[in-house]
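[job 4471] stage=fold_predict status=RUNNING
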Amino acid sequence: MNGIYLDKPITYFHSSLRFFQEGEHHVERDCADDVLVLVFEGVLRFSEGSQEYEVGPGEYFIQRHGLHQSGQLPSDAPKYLYIHFFSEWGKELNTDSSHLLPRNGYFDVDELLPVMKKMDALSHAVVSNVERLAVFYQILSLLYAGKHPITIEERIAEYLASHYSEKITLEALAEHFHFSKNHVINIFKKKYQTTPYEYLINIRVKMAARFLEFGTDPVETIACDCGFGDYASLYKFFFRTYHMSPGAYRKAR
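[job 4471] inference complete, writing C-alpha cells
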C-alpha cells in the first residue's frame, strides 16, 4: 500500500478551498509538491501518470510530487480542500516504525469539514506557519485514525438498515452523503448489485417477517413500523418475496 510516512519530516506549503464550475477540468501540470485533496461535495476527476482517478464526497487522495497530472474528463462540480506539502513516500511494511497514511481513503465529512474550513481560514490569515501546521497535522491525524473505515457504499447500507422505518427518498440520501443521485445509485449498485431502493425494500420485508413471526401487533401496524406506510404496500412486496400474504405467513409460523 503506497502512502506518506507520518513519522518522518513533513513540510507544509499552502492550502485553500476550491470550488469547480460544472464541467470544469482539472489543471494539467507537473507538480513539484505533494497535494492532499479532500472532497466534500461533487466529484473530482483527474489522471496522474497514465492512471485515471475519481474522488467523491467523503474521499481523500494524495497526489504525488513529480508526476504529470491532467484532467481529460470534466469533473462534477467538486468542492474540496487542497493542501500542498512535501513528504517521504513508501509502502506499509507491517512494522512499528511504518506509520503510513494511505494515498487515498475515506473520511467523515461532518467531522472533518469544520477543521478543513479552519485550515482554509488560516491559510489566508496573517498568522504564524506553526498555527497552520498544527491544523494540518490535526487533519493528517484524523485521516490516519480512520484509515480503515467502511466505504461510502457500506455507510449507505448501514444508514438504510438503521433508518428503514423512516421515509427515505433518493434525494434525501444523496443530500445526506453529499453525492448526486446518479452517483449514489451507481456506486451502490456496483457493490451490492441492486439499487438503494430495492435494498431498503428487502430490509423492510425481512423486518416485517420477523415482526409477524415473533410479535403480536396487527399487520397494519407492522406495515407502518417497517416503513411501508400502509398494508397494500407491505402486501405487494411481501408477496413478491415470500409468495404468500403477511397474514398467511404469520399463520404458517
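[job 4471] summary: The domain at 152-252 is CATH 1.10.10.60 (Arc Repressor Mutant, subunit A).
[job 4471] exit 0
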